[in-house]
Amino acid sequence: MKMNTKKRRGTLDWDWLLGLYGLIPTICPDWDYLIELFIYICSLSPVGILEVRTVSEGGVLAIKGVKSQYYISMNRTGLLQGKKIYNENCNFKEIFLENYFNAYSSAKLTRNGKEMFIALSQKGRPLRGKKTRREHIASHFIPMKCREEERTAV
Fold it and tell me: Which domain of life is it from (predicted)?
């Protein structure tokens, strides 16, 4: 069943959250509640645990899936890929934003002098780096610490 969201997007009393089970309507406009609900939904699956490792000074990191053991990599066209073996395309710069979120851009690659960011669509699919900007909400992430028992349960 497909939900019609066009009627409710403009109203102030409905906020929509994309989770594992599709769009979840929430009546409460309190953003803290929405974030807690989103964290709870994402914590139901151990597949989404990512490990962030510092590679060099200056905020350069590598991001690795704990369960899959694959590194996130960006090719020259801006497409995100998983790589079993670490290489320099797996390096990303961590950028701290003023809204307390983080953004991750490729440390090696640029497109016409512009940075290419890791970003996810509303459906959770990766966007091409050449279509992303620092200002886009799709490229904003909140890093969270994971409990040790959640990591080892994977």
Answer: Eukaryota
Q: Which residue from 132, 133, 135, 137 is spatially nearest to 122, judged by alpha carbons?
A: 137
The reported pLDDT for the residue numbered 150 is 56
84-113: per-residue pLDDT in tens? 999 999 999 999 988 888 899 999 888 888
**What is 27-72 written as a DSSP string?**
----HHHHHHHHHHHHHT-GGG-EEEEEEETTTEEEEEETTT--EE
Neighbours of 114 (CB within 10 A): 13
Joined together, the tokens standing for residue 121 give 């669509």
Residue 88, domain extent: 46-152
Number of structural domains the chain divides into: 2
With 0-12 CB in 10 A as exposed, 13-18 as middle and 19+ as buried, what is 117?
buried
The set of residues, in sequence order, having a beta carbon less than 8 Å from that of 27 and lying 6+ positions away, is 13, 14
CATH number at residue 114: 2.80.10.50
122 φψ region: left (φ > 0), alpha (ψ -120 to 50), beta (else): alpha
